[in-house]
Amino acid sequence: MPIKVANNLPAIKILEEENIFVMPEDRAMSQDIRPLKILILNLMPTKIETETQLIRLLGNTSLQVDIDLLHTKSHQAKNVSKHHLDTFYKTFEEIRYKRYDGMIITGAPVEKMDFEKVDYWGELVEIMDWSKRNVCSTIHICWGAQAGLYHHYGIGKHALDEKLSGIYRHRIKNALHPLMRGLDDVFMMPHSRYTESIPEEIRRDERLEILAESNMAGIAVVADKSCRDVFVFGHAEYDLMTLDAEYKRDIAKGINPKIPYSYYPKDDVTQTPDKKWRSTAFLLFANWLNYFVYQQTPYDLNELQTDDYIMI
């Protein structure tokens, strides 16, 4: 089944060239199907690239998905045009009285800052609180995962000695969990961050469960007992060359970063990497959509119950 997006969104052309079935909203309106309503809060500066990456993953299932893109009004985006935001994005004021089957909160390049010093922190807190009453399940990515754990559970982030960047091996901790269904016991996922969440702090909270972990990269996937909140600390959504672009950006800034781990063949930055995480990314998001969004929400979203759901 297709994914439904706004007419003329730049991602449409890119995804159609990849054989991803994307349906413009005017065609979708003619179908008598209630699509899943998914809200993407895009905090990344590279908004077009990030929205394309996430829509690609959401579009590779048998479910029709209706996407709303959200940006924070309290932060002035510098790397995307005002026209793009005005055309394709909504503000929280425009959606606060709506309900959604699922929501994605992306990462953001602010992890070196204290949460409260981020200029849109107050707005993000309001959105996260709103999600508890108006969204069936929310998946938080990278800094978004750290922000969610901090706000909802009081679990802080800790600075690393150097940037964690590369493709890392992870091992599933609970192979019977629906979110992990079909994933290999050991899977690959990109990471790109300067901070970490400590496993022992997460394990002390009986409401949370670590589902996958890496010896080198640390926590990979965490969920609450009902999967109303899922926290993914890597970037399964990344394109093949995203880490390459970040590495070369850091070089240009004079940061002198390490070569991303296990990314370039033989650590030769002139060679094209292999994408080792594609199937993991598709399956992780498909499991989330199926088991904790589609299987949980009612046909009429006004009947959405905001109490914890029972694990299926």
Question: What are the SSEs and their pairings?
Answer:
Layout: E1 3-5, H1 11-17, E2 22-24, H2 25-28, E3 36-41, H3 47-58, E4 65-70, H4 82-88, E5 89-90, H5 92-95, E6 100-105, H6 121-134, E7 135-141, H7 143-153, E8 158-172, E9 186-196, H8 199-203, E10 208-214, E11 218-224, E12 229-232, H9 242-252, H10 278-294
Parallel strand pairs: 1-2, 1-4, 3-4, 3-6, 4-5, 6-7, 7-12
Antiparallel strand pairs: 8-9, 8-10, 10-11, 11-12
Helix pairs in contact: 1-3
Kindly estimate the percentage of residues that lie in beta strands according to DSSP.
15-25%
Uncertain ranges = 307-312
Shape: globular
The number of domains: 1
Per CATH, the class reads Alpha Beta
Give me the CATH fold name: Rossmann fold
Query: What's the helical proportion of residues?
Result: 25-40%
Major pleated sheet:
12 strands, mixed
Q: Provide the residue-averaged pLDDT.
A: 89
| Structural Rg | 19 Å
Number of helices: 10
Task: Write structural notes for this entry.
- This protein is α/β, with parallel strands linked by helices and 312 residues long.
- It has one domain (3-301): Class I glutamine amidotransferase (GATase) domain (Rossmann fold, 3-Layer(aba) Sandwich), CATH 3.40.50.
- It is 29% helix and 25% strand.
- It contains ten helices and twelve strands.
- The chain has helices spanning 11-17, 25-28, 47-58, 82-88, 92-95, 121-134, 143-153, 199-203, 242-252, 278-294, and strands spanning 3-5, 22-24, 36-41, 65-70, 89-90, 100-105, 135-141, 158-172, 186-196, 208-214, 218-224, 229-232.
- Strands 1, 2, 3, 4, 5, 6, 7, 8, 9, 10, 11 and 12 form a twelve-stranded mixed sheet that branches.
- The longest helix has 17 residues, at 278-294.
- It is globular, with a radius of gyration of 19 Å.
- Mean pLDDT is 89; it is low at 307-312.
